[in-house]
Amino acid sequence: MLGVSQSLRKPAGGPALALCLCLAAWLAWAAPAAQAASPQPATLVIGVGRDLYDGPDSSTYVHGSLNAWEALTYLDQDLRAQPWLAESWRSRDGGRTWVFRLRQGVRFHNGAPFTSREAAANLRRLAGRAKYDPTGIYRNVIAMEPRGRHELVFRLAKPSPAFPNLLAYFSSPMIHPSCFDEEGRVKELIATGPFRVKKIRRGDRIELEAFAGHWAGKPAYDRVVFRFIPDAQTRLMALLAGEVDAVADVGGILPEQAAELAQAPQVELLRREVATTHYLVFNCGKPPFSERRARLWLASILDRKQVVAALAHGAGVVARDPYSPLARDWAFGLLNPPPGVKPAAPARELIILLHGGTTQRWPYLEIAQVLQQKLAAEGFRAAIEIKEPGAYYEAMQKGAFDLALQPNTLMTGDPDFFYAYYLHGQGPRSYGCGGPALDRLIEEARFEMDFKRRQALYRELAELFNRELPLLPLYHDISLYAHRQSVLDFQMDQNFRPSLAKARPRGRP
Q1: Is residue 210 part of a domain?
Q2: Residue of 437, 442, 436, 456 lying closest to 334 (CA atoms)
Q3: In terms of Cα–Cα distance, which of 252, 364, 255 is closest to 309?
Q4: Which of 40, 88, 285, 483 is most buried, with most CB under 10 Å away?
């Protein structure tokens, strides 16, 4: 009874003091309990070999691997278009009109709804600007018309049999219109992805935070950090030391690092065939490789099987198609160049050009050195030049090279993406190996609505490619990626986009 009486007794100082003391006591008890109930924010750190900040003059501001923005469609493992922000589509007028039905309930990171009006504003930003549409995906579009809140109608000048593919991923990034100016430059990124950009440190890292309002639900990780680690060995050591939780990007882990990672019990090493192909590019605008027989000859002295086995350490598939065979509908396996004729060695030194950003992601330097040795054995002098991105592309544009190594990813899953890019006379990476007949065939295949007829046209193009060999596909990439055992449900897909929305830390549902 005495204890109860004491607990009910009013303390000196009156009602106000009693209330303050009771509140202080409750807070002292509740604070540790609240801390115990609220776990620390879960953070995922990913190491990559390139800076994924693309900048205000790009179509996307940041790379798609960040999961910060989304597009109308996405490609599946067979490189066929699947719903993303567009949930369905249909065509009319023999492929000249396409109607896309947009997903409902989607919001931007600022809470604004995503509707057909915002979608049309984004696509008008891309159309007519070569820097945002280098392959001319929107050159065939006459009009884009919002219909209600969730339908977008495209009217085309000519039929487009693969239009949903053409809008996939990087071709239709959706950004809130307030983020870009009249020239299309992006000042910040407000998009619809499961993560939103929190901070960008150029040349160092990009910090993201989970978007609780994402249409598919909040991700398990609260924060994701992409660290730019250009040196391949430093990336490996960061993963083994636990400084990063994963290394996931095309070329992020070199094939020769696989053995060491396979012995690390705390790391899971994975492989994924991606839609990237590695090419030896000929300068067809000047001798000796302006001659078809010279291109065929060089292909005959370079053993591509040995390149994959010894230099890529098996992390590749010897190319039998001009582009990724993941595009099942358009892979014919016809690439087997006929013998060529050795050209006369020029008095000058040949230039083998390399992009400096690729040498820490793929064995390009080693391939170039093998080429240099084989050319020397045949009486050709060759020098290897490694240039930074701007200087590399400037040299390519000016034709200041004889041979170059570079990757290309079939981003739309459609063969026209490759042929229009590399071989058409107006292609941004055309180096003089095409011609009017080839241009006509490319354009005929682009607009052919009959599937079987279109396949036949691309088979004809593949046969022509094999005979002329305007560039030499070396191998299709098998990318290695890895994550620590503390990370669950982490995958990288055929477009080397990590599954950040599904990944979760061990111990969290």
Answers
A1: no
A2: 456
A3: 255
A4: 483
- Closest by CA position to 387, among listed 374, 396, 399: 396
- Examine residue 226 and state whether it is found in any structural domain, yes or no: no
In this prediction, residue 39 carries a pLDDT of: 63
Question: What are the CA-CA distances from residue 46 to residues 221, 276, 478 (Å)?
Answer: 12, 21, 19
In one-letter notation, the amino acid at residue 430 is S
Residue 486 has, within 13 A of its CA and on its CB side, a CA count of 12
Residue 113 lies in a domain: yes
User: Which H or E element spans position 259?
Assistant: helix 258-262
Q: How many CA atoms lie within 13 A of 472 on its CB side?
A: 26
The pTM of this model reads 0.87
Among 380, 378, 390, CA closest to 351: 380
For residue 446, what are its two tokens? 């682009």
- Give a yes or no: residue 352 inside a domain: yes
Structural domains counted in the chain: 2
pLDDT in tens, 333-358: 999 999 999 999 999 999 999 999 99
In the chain the first and final C-alpha atoms are separated, in Å, by 49
- Which domain range does residue 352 map to? 275-478
- What is the CATH classification number for the domain harbouring 390? 3.10.105.10
